[in-house]
Backbone:
């Protein structure tokens, strides 16, 4: 076993949009007292050895022996400081994944965490836990929605310890509500086998798949709307546009847009925002006023500029500080549409709760990841 195997398995899943989009997902490999874990903001699709951070496992283990403040901000700052101090010599310039503690506590040589749309159709649904039990039985753990980082790791540790006492073996398949899936094994062949089974089982249960055919880059007055949105966002902002059969269906009315009107996972918040703007268009009134008024109402309500604007009868607009981030917003919104469609097979969509959305919007670690993505 070697770091090269970790690179290979990371690139395999990181380059496949069915499993990972943008900078999402993370992987790890354990070798003696060292944990090799993906660096925050690094892309799995083209990761090299330099993209992993070497961590001292003994120092990571001591984090569990400490008492941290109850205040969220103070706790996260203290945990981050201890995690950064657990980096081995020579790794000072790197920043480990926010899920480093979780990777370390799972007793497998390899751990691969991804966010497949099919999986999140299950984890972001009303009946997800019940469906997971029916489809995967006692071979999986289900973790209710939890803030990422230390709190999530603690929740998984508690559930995994109980699972091992109950079954006599470690849990190698962990579904995280409104987040994704963790898979652990001692070989990359076993990792592949588990993932293949997961997606095959879920694919058989999906009643409706989204229809992204008929992709259109310019539609009607979409170019005018893009300019108006860029002006609302401010100097140097860019706007991307896309229309297809699924987006046309979702932008018919406000009610049609409801299944995609909030955030399903932390990645969706980072790249496409937690508060997409839906603009109702009255063709008897002036377009500029309607766009500007809708933008102002959104700002007054949420306090944040949207990264996605859905315009009735037109399509989806991604808004970012560069062409890259504007396109990423649409890419993640496309994933949102997939998750919403797949969730129909498990009782319908379930968004992240308001408090969990606020945590991600204000969490220093996710702000760091967002800044890394925004770099040219």
Residues:
């Amino acid at each position: 076993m070697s770091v090269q195997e970790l690179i290979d398995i990371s690139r395999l899943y990181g380059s496949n949009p069915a499993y990972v989009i943008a900078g999402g997902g993370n992987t790890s490999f354990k070798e003696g007292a060292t944990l090799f874990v993906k660096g925050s903001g690094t892309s799995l699709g083209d990761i090299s050895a330099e993209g992993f951070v070497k961590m001292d496992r003994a120092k990571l283990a001591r984090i569990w022996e400490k008492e941290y403040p109850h205040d969220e901000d103070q706790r996260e700052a203290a945990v981050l400081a201890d995690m950064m101090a657990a980096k081995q010599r020579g790794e000072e310039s790197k920043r480990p994944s926010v899920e480093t503690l979780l990777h370390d506590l799972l007793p497998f040589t390899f751990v691969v965490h991804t966010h497949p749309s099919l999986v999140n159709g299950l984890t972001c649904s009303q009946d997800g836990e019940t469906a997971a039990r029916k489809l995967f039985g006692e071979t999986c753990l289900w973790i209710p929605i939890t803030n990422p980082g230390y709190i999530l790791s603690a929740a998984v540790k508690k559930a995994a310890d109980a699972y091992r006492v109950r079954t006599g073996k470690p849990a190698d398949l962990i579904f995280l509500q409104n987040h994704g899936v963790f898979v652990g094994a001692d070989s990359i062949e076993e990792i592949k086998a588990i993932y293949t089974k997961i997606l095959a089982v879920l694919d058989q249960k999906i009643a409706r798949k989204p229809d992204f055919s008929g992709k259109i880059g310019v539609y009607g007055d979409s170019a005018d709307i893009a300019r108006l949105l860029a002006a609302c966002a401010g100097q140097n902002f860019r706007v991307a546009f896309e229309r297809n059969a699924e987006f046309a269906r979702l932008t018919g009315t406000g009610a049609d847009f409801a299944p995609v009107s909030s955030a399903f996972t932390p990645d969706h918040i980072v790249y496409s925002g937690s508060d997409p703007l839906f603009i109702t268009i009255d063709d008897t009134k002036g377009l500029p006023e309607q766009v500007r008024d809708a933008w102002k109402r959104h700002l007054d309500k949420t306090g944040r500029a949207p990264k996605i604007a859905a315009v009735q009868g037109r399509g989806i607009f991604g808004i970012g500080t560069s062409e890259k981030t504007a396109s990423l917003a649409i890419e993640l919104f496309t994933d949102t549409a997939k998750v919403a469609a797949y969730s129909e097979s498990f009782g319908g969509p379930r968004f992240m709760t308001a408090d969990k959305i606020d945590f991600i919007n204000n969490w220093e670690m996710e702000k760091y990841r967002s800044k890394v993505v925004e770099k040219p």
Summary: The CA atoms of residues 104 and 311 lie 45 Å apart. The longest strand covers residues 26-31. Confidence is low (pLDDT under 50) at residues 372-376. The chain has 16 helices and eleven strands.
